[in-house]
Amino acid sequence: MLISKKDLLKETGISYGQLYRWKRERLIPEEWFIKQSSYTGQETYFPKEQILNRIRSIQELKDKYSLEELAKMLSPYVINQGFPMDELVEIKEIDEILLQFLQKLYNRDNFHYIEVLILIILSDLMKERNLTHEQTTELIIGMKDSLSELDSTGYIIEIFTINLEYYSIIYQEQSPFYMDNRYQVVKKIRIDDISNQMKIKYRNYFDFNSKMTDDSTSEKRQYKQDYNKEEYEQDAHQDKKEYQEKSQSSNEDYNQSNTTDDMNRNKNQKNDEIIFKINNWEVRL
């Protein structure tokens, strides 16, 4: 489901300037700005649930952190440094038995960021759906080969059932697919949401900022360079156009209101004059 830029600004209370500043700072991904034709020309839309969640997070944290720190916290890029098993026991959302199973499955005591997020997701799913450890570990085995291919948290996991057995599908947020309706989807999880929650909740325990990949920092820097003067002026021009349309609409309403008031005033004056003449005629009678 999409939300228009006009409705987004109204619902969140932010300005055009804030929205595009956050875009330039990579707090809001560029791919969330979706251009579509409308009766006024062209309008910008956003994936509703994602943009509203992101703006709420920014509004809650912007007074505590700089925009650069927020950009790292909300970045979809995978954290490069591994997480030792003895550190992961501090994350209360991870089921201890699942953690031990993952250790045996990979035969190591250090885990990648995506693997940690999957543990959190499946631990929560196990509690929510009353799954057994065996059912949940089968899901981990099914995902194992795919996890190494995920280069960011910008993916969605859908859990579905076939004949009472659980399976998963992982796909990018901007690449929707259509599943056979005979499959029953029981859970849809945005990995990015879980990542943001973890970075915020455990920011004092894990130094996420120093563990960001060099690629994410350089790409952010490159994006700022690529977001050149021409693109900035295009955004400013679009904002100015929408502001002018809004002002023109307000002026038309104001002029219409004034015209109506003038007509009513003249009508009342005319009625007063007739009554006055009638009253004179009656007086003369």
Outline the structure in words.
The structure is a single chain. Helices cover 58% and strands 15% of the residues. The strands form three sheets. The chain has a three-stranded antiparallel sheet. Strands 7-6-8 form a three-stranded antiparallel sheet. Helix 6 crosses helix 8, helix 7 packs antiparallel against helix 8 and helix 7 packs across helix 9.
Percent helix, as a range, is: 55-70%
From the alpha-carbon coordinates, what is the Rg to the nearest angstrom?
A: 29 Å
* Total domains: 3
Which range does the strand content fall in?
A: 5-15%
| Order of strands, widest sheet | 1-3-2
Helix/strand class: alpha+beta
Main beta sheet: 3 strands, antiparallel
Question: What are the main properties of this structure?
Answer:
3 domains, globular, disordered C terminus, 285 residues, Multidrug-efflux Transporter Regulator, Chain: A, Domain 2, three-stranded antiparallel sheet, 15% strand, alpha+beta
